[in-house]
Amino acid sequence: MTVSFGGRASSVRFEGVTKAFGEVVAVNAISFVVEAGSLATLLGPSGCGKTTTLRLVAGLELATAGRILIGDDDVTGLPATRRDVSMVFQSYALFPHMTVIENVAYGFVVSGTPKAEAHAKAELGLELVGLKGYGPRLPSELSGGQQQRVAVARALVLEPQVLLFDEPLSNLDAKLRRRVREEIRDIQQSLGLTVVYVTHDQEEALAVSDKVIVMRNAEIAQEGKPRELYEQPADRFVADFIGDANMVSADILSVDGTHARVSIGGVEVQVPSRGLPVGPVQTAIRPESVLLDTQGGEGLAGTVLKTAYLGKHMEYTVDSPVGELFVVDERVHAPLAPGTGVTIRFGDRIALVVG
Ligand SMILES: Nc1ncnc2c1ncn2[C@@H]1O[C@H](COP(=O)(O)OP(=O)(O)OP(=O)(O)O)[C@@H](O)[C@H]1O
Ligand SMILES: [Mg+2]
């Protein structure tokens, strides 16, 4: 018997989808596309509508308005049982009295697949998540991370058109989070699966995604590739939610096609203009783009207020004519003491923001 996975991945398309629970609008007229075979994350603060969006894909909630397509099929009115979608929940929801292999094979057994074939597929699923040989154990005999991988295997073996993850790593410690997220990404890429992944951890979203959809108050604040969101955030909310940003008032002095010359307290930088006119503007300056110099030269005069040693970099809070700046500096071997006078210049990780 040969078993294999993959090959049935489909795109997901939302067209003006709204979900209201009585007075509460959990999802407000959102539209997006997740391409077949790609991984998209829904990222945003608590209560912004991420889980509801995922449940709308699964058919666990039905839309109040709008259309949902999986591949070319309009599934808007279809219940969960008639959609080819699997979901991995935050609490992995393994059956405690069943062995690992029985858990993974469960979906096949209920759909009438012969036990030998079901177990063969389940074995392969366990192998994919690095748990070959763990089949006979009970879930209680596994670590949290291993249980999480069993839940992933259980969803994976059904070869759904779309695989959904709702904060799958939230119960794991930091080291394991990184490992499991890399495994999920590897499996997704090697099998060409369509995955929609919910998290409120921006680093996790940047690390695993083809596309990140940032949500705020039931709407989409911005979507794009990880690099686009970090380097060209649309507004203050996105700039602050994805990584740290110093929000600093500045002036656009001139615009030349796609670039603008901007004065930040008198220090001039060139940044993408984003269609903004000459005049006052808000900038989002990344902490690694605030450059501190103790040798003088041109720049803003500042004073180090606070310093922290983080192992691979230093963090500083610096007082400056444009306000307090949060700074990340890789030069850990030559730390600056509080009170040190510095000259501040700016690198190129600066974005003009609208709102
Ligand atoms: N069944 C429901 N009945 C009423 N309101 C609901 C229901 N489910 C969700 N909501 C509300 O809809 C909004 C969005 O909820 P949702 O669970 O989608 O948020 P979330 O982004 O997943 O948040 P978290 O990060 O905390 O999990 C919230 O205000 C929530 O209270
Ligand atoms: Mg949620």
What attributes does this structure have?
355 residues; alpha+beta; Rossmann fold; OB fold (Dihydrolipoamide Acetyltransferase, E2P); 2 domains; 6-stranded mixed sheet; globular; binds magnesium ion
How would you describe the overall organization of this protein?
This protein has eight helices and 20 strands. The chain is α+β, with helices and mostly antiparallel strands. It folds into two domains: about 10-230, 3-Layer(aba) Sandwich (Rossmann fold), CATH 3.40.50.300; about 245-355, Nucleic acid-binding proteins (OB fold (Dihydrolipoamide Acetyltransferase, E2P), Beta Barrel), CATH 2.40.50. It has a six-stranded mixed β-sheet with strand order 6-7-8-3-9-10, sandwiched between helices. The protein has a five-stranded antiparallel β-sheet with strand order 13-12-11-14-20. The protein has a five-stranded antiparallel β-sheet with strand order 15-19-16-17-18, with no helix packed on it. A hairpin with a 5-residue loop joins strand 17 and strand 18. Helix 2 packs across helix 3 (about 115-130) and helix 3 crosses helix 4. Adenosine-5'-triphosphate binds near residues 24 and 46.
Blueprint of the fold:
Blueprint: E1 12-21, E2 24-34, E3 39-43, H1 50-58, E4 65-70, E5 73-74, E6 85-88, H2 100-110, H3 115-128, H4 144-156, E7 162-166, H5 174-191, E8 195-199, H6 202-208, E9 211-216, E10 219-224, H7 226-231, H8 236-241, E11 246-256, E12 259-264, E13 267-272, E14 279-285, E15 290-293, E16 300-309, E17 314-319, E18 325-329, E19 341-346, E20 350-353
Parallel strand pairs: 3-8, 3-9, 6-7, 7-8
Antiparallel strand pairs: 1-2, 1-4, 4-5, 9-10, 11-12, 11-14, 12-13, 14-20, 15-19, 16-17, 16-19, 17-18
Helix pairs in contact: 2-3, 2-4, 3-4, 4-5
The chain binds adenosine-5'-triphosphate and magnesium ion (MG).
